[in-house]
Request: fold
Amino acid sequence: MFRHKITLFKLFGFSVSIDASWVIILFLVVWLLAKELFPNYFPELTNLTYWLMGLAGAIGLFVSIIIHEFSHSLVARKYGLEIRGITLFIFGGVAEMKGEPSSPKAEFFMAIAGPIASLLLSILFGILYQIGDILEWPVPAMGILGYLSGINMLLVLFNMVPAFPTDGGRILRSVLWWIKGDIYWATRLASRISLMFAMAIMFIGFINLLGGNFIGGLWWILIGYFIFNAAGASYQHLLMERSFGEKTVRYFMNPNPVTVPSYITLQEFVDKYVYHYHYKMFPVVDGSRVVGVITTQAVKTVPHEEWHHLQVGGLMQPQSPDNSVAPDTPVKEALSKMSISGLSRLLVLEHGKMVGIVTLKDLLEFLALKMELEA
Ligand SMILES: [Zn+2]
Reply:
């Protein structure tokens, strides 16, 4: 998920990383503070002072977000959940959890720990600001304190919106989960509420756009779109986690798939295999060796007249890491390979030999059964 991340340091056993996007955000924050916010509120200072204030403000924001994520992580650990690390990315921070919380109580306290930390930070900076006001601290220090108090309050408000993947979305789910004792139902309902929120946010964006507020409108649409995507994804993610767990491809594969010899024509392939078995992909075998895969998608690209003289071997895709997996691959990985490649069937290879085939259809049927019996 976070491919371009840079690990910064380790604290309490958690490694803290930044996503590459954060470097851009950092520049943007410094620039906005130095060029817009601080000059607006404190007009009498020098250019250099504004830049230094901007840098201090950005570092303060950075530390605040880390404290927010640490609060989540420490509570998660208290409830026995493993945290892989903390990554700061474009929309703030993320504590990468392994697995899902085991009870509504665990999820509730884990989710609310972050906003509570941000609220306390906002109050702390606010108190310092008041003290500074009385003791007449220098203007740049006051500006930074005021900004940090405000931005932490903004973090609380943004994170309390009851829409996945914010903390508010998790709090909402934990409460629903607690009410009915059914995590599937709770997640489904919380996802729906999130999607409604996301659409409302995008709608506000469009209204703003129509009203001529271009930047503001785009910003709302972007946030709405982000929530919309994430809300759908987190529901699917939960289903996968719960249903497949650590199961591997070996558990689901068909060890005796229908194979096609490479020398038959496309016409024979369509008549005898595609129309007979209704599969979209077949392993192509020469003797006992698998040499590639043939898909209906590939056949579609060839004009009908040529089906009589073209052979399967001429059209197949050679066997490659894109269309095959090892039997010990976790199902979740196989699924993501399917979604990246668009293939609904993958070859299962062990030491270069085909030992079976795994299909999206079988995995989805398992998922449907599991939900029917356990939801
Ligand atoms: Zn949070």
Notes: Residues 249-374 form a domain with the CBS-domain fold (CATH 3.10.580.10). DSSP finds 13 helices and eleven strands in the chain. The first helix runs from residue 20 to 41. The pocket of zinc ion is lined by residues 68, 72, 114, 159, 167 (CB under 6 Å).
